[in-house]
Here is the input.
Amino acid sequence: MPYIPKKNRAEFDAHVDALAEILAANLEPGELNYCISRLIWKLFGKKPSYTLGNALIGALDCVKLEFYRRMLAPYEDAKIAQNGDLDI
Here is the structure.
């Protein structure tokens, strides 16, 4: 769940914003994958365990699902409204 208290966000936001600016300049999926992979692997490397690995995989899955729910699904709904639904 990405909805942490606002007071806890400040230490992350500037770093995430800076990385997003670098990636957005010429977004390549491989570069995004690299950044996400490096972060996850670094975290796992600090204290490897099945529990941590499982938690990291769970976080990745939840990020994917929340991105779809909040960002991509509304975009798709707008495109349906713009272009019409499937004809089945």
